[in-house]
Amino acid sequence: MVHLDEDCVTYVDGGTTQTRAWSVKGTRVLAEARVAVGARDTARDGSPARLRTAVRDLLAQVGGPTAPSLIVAAGMVTSPQGLCELPHVAAPADAAALRAGARLERQPDLATAPMLFIPGVRSGPHPCDAASVLHTDAMRGEEVLCLGLAAAGLLPAGGVVLNLGSHWKAVAVDAGGFITGSVTTLSGELVHAVGGQTILASALPAQRPDVLMASWIDAGAAACDAAGLSRALFCVRLLEQRAPTLPEQRYAFLMGAVIAADRPTLVPDASGGQSRRVLLTGAHVVADAWAGYLARRGLDAMVVSEADVDRAFRAGCAAVVAAGRSGAA
C-alpha cells in the first residue's frame, strides 16, 4: 500500500510532443525534468523505442537518492503510441472510475518501481458513425488535470476546462464532480499550419508574439462571425497587401478569427443564461487571448498558471491512486 503523504512517488505526464516527470513526497517536489519527446515521435518512427528511452532517462533524472514506491503515468503514454495502451473509460467518470480502468504493472527496462497507468476518458456513442461522430470525443491527460483543478477549488461545479495545445479541448465537469465529456478541435495545429504552410506565411511574424492586441483579436473574430473562417483568414493577406499593419496585428486578427470559429463548439452559451467558469490552460499567449475574448463577452474566464497546472495534474493522479489500493504488481 502506497502512503501518498509519506512515500516518494514519481508522476509522469506523457504528451504528444513532450514528456514530463516529477519526484514528489507528499506535496513537496524533490526533482522534475522534461524532454521534447512524446507520442508524436512514436507515430513518426513507427516504434516506441525513442519514447521508452526518453522516459527511462527522465525517471533516472528525477530518481535521486530516494527510490519511488510507485510511478504514476497519465496522458498519451496510455495511447497506442505510448508505453501501455489502455482503453478509454466511458464518461461520466470520476477518480474511482479511472482507478478501476487503470493498470498496475512492472516495466523493468524503465524502472524498478511498479507503474500505475491511468486511462483517458471517452464520451458519446462508441463506436460512432458519420451521423454521430460530432457527438463523440476522447481525452488522455486532461481528465486528471480536471480532477486536480476541482480538488484545488479552482473549478466550480458546472465549469469548463479549455486546454489550448496542439489541439484545443474543452472538458466539462458536472455538479457531482464527474467529467461528463469533452469537445476537441484541431485549431492549435491549424494556426501553426496556416502560419507556416500557406500563402499567409509572409503576412505573419516568424515567432508568435508575447502579447496579442485585444482590438485586433476582436476584429478577426468579427470577420469570422460575418463571413466565416476561410474568408477571415484570407483577410489576413489583404491586410498585408492593402493596409498599414504590422505582422503582430495580423497574427492577432488570425487568432481572433480562429477563436470565434471555435467558441460556439468549445464554450457554448450556458443554458438559461447561467454563468459558469472557464479555466484556460496552455501557452499563455493563446490562453490570454481566449480569456480576454471571453471576458469581453461577459464570461468568467481565468487563466491557470503553469505551476498550478502542474500541481493539479499531480493532485489528480494522486486522487486516482487514493481511489484504490496500489500494491506491488
Describe the fold and architecture.
This protein has helices at 39-45, 49-63, 95-101, 142-151, 187-197, 214-227, 229-242, 247-266, 284-295, 306-322, and strands at residues 8-14, 19-25, 28-35, 70-75, 89-90, 103-105, 115-117, 121-123, 137-139, 160-164, 168-173, 179-185, 277-282, 300-303. The chain is α/β, with parallel strands linked by helices and 329 residues long. It folds into 2 domains: 8-129, Nucleotidyltransferase, domain 5 (2-Layer Sandwich), CATH 3.30.420; 185-303, 2-Layer Sandwich (Nucleotidyltransferase, domain 5), CATH 3.30.420.310. The chain is globular, with a radius of gyration of 21 Å. The relative contact order is 0.14. The mean pLDDT is 93.
SSE blueprint:
Blueprint: E1 8-14, E2 19-25, E3 28-35, H1 39-45, H2 49-63, E4 70-75, E5 89-90, H3 95-101, E6 103-105, E7 115-117, E8 121-123, E9 137-139, H4 142-151, E10 160-164, E11 168-173, E12 179-185, H5 187-197, H6 214-227, H7 229-242, H8 247-266, E13 277-282, H9 284-295, E14 300-303, H10 306-322
Helix pairs in contact: 3-10, 4-10, 6-7, 6-8, 7-8, 8-9
Total number of β-strand segments?
14
Number of domains: 2
Largest sheet: 6 strands, mixed
Give the N-to-C terminal Cα separation: 11 Å
Order of helices and strands: EEEHHEEHEEEEHEEEHHHHEHEH
Helix content: 25-40%
Can you list the strand order of the major beta sheet? Answer: 3-2-1-4-7-6
Class based on secondary structure composition and strand pairing: alpha/beta
CATH topology of the largest domain: Nucleotidyltransferase, domain 5
Low-pLDDT windows of residues: none
Mean pLDDT: 93
Assembly classification:
single chain
Approximate shape: globular
Supply the CATH class of the largest domain: Alpha Beta
Please report which band the strand proportion falls in: under 5%, 5-15%, 15-25%, 25-35%, 35-45% or over 45%.
Answer: 15-25%
From the 3D coordinates, which CATH architecture of the largest domain would you assign? 2-Layer Sandwich
Give the helix tally.
10
CATH superfamily of the largest domain: 2-keto-3-deoxy-galactonokinase, substrate binding domain
Q: Whole-number radius of gyration?
A: 21 Å
